[in-house]
Amino acid sequence: xxxxxLGFSGGELEDxxxxxxxxxxxxxxxxxxxxxxxxxxxxDGLLVKLGAKVPKELIDKLxxxxxxxxxxxxxxxxxxxxxxxxxxxxxxxxxxxxEGVAEFTFGILIExxxxxxxALGLAWDGVYEDDHHPGMEIKGKRFGVIGLGNIGxxxxxxxxxxxxxxxxxxxxxxxxxxxxxxxxxGLDDLLANSDIITLNLALNPETEGIINADRIKKIKTNxxxxxxxxxxxxxxxKALVTRLKQNDMVFMLDHSDEMTEEQLKELKxxxxxxxxxxxxxxxxxxxxxxxxxYVDNLKNYLDGKPSNKVN
Amino acid sequence: xxxxxLGFSGGELEDxxxxxxxxxxxxxxxxxxxxxxxxxxxxDGLLVKLGAKVPKELIDKLxxxxxxxxxxxxxxxxxxxxxxxxxxxxxxxxxxxxEGVAEFTFGILIExxxxxxxALGLAWDGVYEDDHHPGMEIKGKRFGVIGLGNIGxxxxxxxxxxxxxxxxxxxxxxxxxxxxxxxxxGLDDLLANSDIITLNLALNPETEGIINADRIKKIKTNxxxxxxxxxxxxxxxKALVTRLKQNDMVFMLDHSDEMTEEQLKELKxxxxxxxxxxxxxxxxxxxxxxxxxYVDNLKNYLDGKPSNKVN
Lengths: 311, 311
What we know:
By secondary structure, chain A is an alpha/beta fold.
């Protein structure tokens, strides 16, 4: 197999992973961009990074192509339908950041409930007691998880460990979760009845805008905390801003690149909206696991037992 | 019963609790300080706040005294031995802040592991991705709890829920914890073998300075995180500072009033030492529970079934 790593400079993987790829492939070439493909259009395998575009036109340039490996979960830039029609296997990396995102969710939740960063500042200024410091316990709160995939399920488990009353909504019922005491609620009911809500859905045509204007109105007005570590396209942005301006709920997001500068500016002006960078999934452990799976996906494909195939 | 609330201004309890106390006592008097006791030396009951001093001399001034109620856990200012000799019941309030302290422990742990407050600042500055941001997962780490009372046990349970390998040391073995998979280790071994350590001991003559110079040296040098939500007198301060200056471990404390200005200044200069105000136990929920128990302690005493009696 001739492997072309498109958009790679070499620093993306540690030496041991490059070595393993070299052991799997006959030839391995790093190519910075499509324009520099040159004679490498005879590639059998193509490795790409998150955000890469692999449209029909690029696939047509590579007549021998049999495998596309995405170093990430999202593969929206790859024309998978066309790849499928050409018999090309496309793989991605799922479930490498479950712990990272779930732990971060509780980190930013406790940051809000206890004012952790404010407290650091107080102590730095020599203030070691403060009657006005926020202090809400998680225990005993009604915790609603929207979407019970890997991250949603782990979030629900941790919420149970913290002593919350946990509910979920998911397109399909999850009996194994329900036997653990995670109760099913309709989406509208869950929004109306929860003190803390996390949104853990994948973005697709059915889920885009699922948290619509009507549903946003259902979120109760008593300082509900809504945490979104998922794409913002799941939410009707205009309706969200209108609601947040009422100052009767808290909204926190783990922002990746799906929002415009204008939207970010608008959210920044809202006191009870906290914007975090896209760091929920960027732990050392997740980074290593992701690379491990990346190399294993290629190995498994070559062994005839493809893993994380998305088409 | 004539109840004297010494050092109280009236704002310490909500109206409903004052009403309950009035229903329990024949007379209730708020006295700002001992100097203003005046004719109230005929008190049968004395209610005091955290930090109050009730030495032999004050007890001798109140010949009818039968009950002293402390609004807090620590009662070091009360001469309990002398109170006992006079047949006076002393009560305190234990186990009202277990959740608050345990949740705060994980809040400041995730703050360190994920740089939550740094992340808020980055996003505010428009930086939504950062390769240098810290990202350590809690899952899979060796978590050592020193002292398995209420707070230590709850901390250990949460650490297990986060997927840690949890060990404890306590003066007495706790079989019920061991059946849950919380392993016993000698104190020196626990210090040497843990990635994350929490100190959850009460301060008394046997525990004062228990984390001594030899033991501090045993803490492994690979960025161990040591969290102390307990009194700093448990630790040899000089030896701690010497170790922290090596910059090979992290130390976080929830500071109450046991340290000198000089000591605080010294700790502030150490980059991997994070000082928090004493807010681990100051949640709304804990505040309410504490007042509930305070009133109930008096009620139970009057009913002949004293609760939280410490002498």
